[in-house]
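### Sample
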Amino acid sequence: MADLHAPQQPAIAPLAKGLRSETFPAALTPDGKSVNPQTAAFARTAEQGFYEPWFSDEQIGRIGRTLVADEQTLSAVYVDRDDAAQEYWGPALAEVGFDDEHPVGTFVDYDKTLNAGGPNGPLPARLITVVTVNPSFRRRGILKHLMTSALSRAVADGLPVAALTVSEGGIYGRFGFGCATREARIRVDLGEGTGEGFALRSQPAGRVISADPVKLDEVIGTSFAEFHARTRGSIGRQQTYQMISTARLNPEDQSAWNRNLRAAVHICEDGSIGGYVTFKHEGWDTEPSTIRIYDLIAADDQSHLALWDYVANLDLVRRATMSTAPLVDPLQTALVNPRSYRVESLKDLLWVRVLDVKKALEARAFSSDGEFALEVEDPLGITGGHFTISVSDGAATVTPAQASSAAGLPSLQLSVESLGSVYLGDVSVRTLHAAGRLGSSTEQDVERISRIMDLPTAPFCATHF
């Protein structure tokens, strides 16, 4: 008998007449010197969708090779030119539009891992990115077709979760994605004087040394692996990060090295690497003199503070900015003057879509032992139904159940979108209840389940994709 609780493939939404889709791997030319024409056309179209310039062959080659290195799958929607020719706008499209090989919709997915805090380490995750729709072809089912096709592939491949980052916050909830991590943009004043500027309450152990970015490949890999293993909410990184952090790729000029990049590495007292920071000076026309931190990855809190202390003590610098800081940063509490640390803005980063309730929750962290009933509603029909969650020694066992078999247990009823938001602990069960997103769950049940599910610290994802 089929398991009715096993993940089911969603219905794939059709495209409007005159459109076709194709899914293919990012690929190089036979000589390996560049990317093939289909990948190049896809990459150019996608970059234009995010208002980037029309990239040169060299720039596309550099971008395309990172897609290949991460084994990214590209999905594109194309206009059927024979069909378009029958429309009144068809001749104009043929005359002034982009060539046939350039799609009107783009979509990328590939696999990394997500740290959900569970006892068995990070779990596999299908990452989704580079989603664009040509404004001339909106409301023709392009996004819905690409997304449902991708989720269907992820279910077929046995992935427990999918994740994405968004440019617009109101689009992806209808596909079951919930906002799961946030990040802060911060400004740290580094002016002189222990009462007014940057001063730590205690000096971190070890030493920070200036480093040549091009020599950091191994340091970056090892440091991020340790950070990823200890940080709930962390997503495995794509090849682009390695290239940017070693100065081989300038995010402001894809064809060039980043000659302005600087780096430093924290050496722990036992001689091990504690982490690294990469940064650039914003220029002498900037007032006050400012350092922009690109990336700061530390294996522990002491290394985190030590790297910040190094930045704060750079000559002729009075401010540091960072756009990817955690919501709860030990640096602020470690400062003599906490007002020198300012949060300029908060924004969502990682959005999670649960594809398999059992696999996803068994990989999650929990605060205390206990048992409760869970009902998940999934409009796409991928993963829903009734489950019993039993947590013992911090590990969950998820059992498909009938509604009647859970009588007497505290009960939680929520959508798969809300499950995505609570999954990593960024949103609490109590907050979901206060927001009216828990169906018929009672105050008493919410309180009991909160003690099991709600986590004491915020998740943090340091990876954009």
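The chain has a mean pLDDT of 94. This sample (Acetyltransferase) is used throughout the tutorial notebook.
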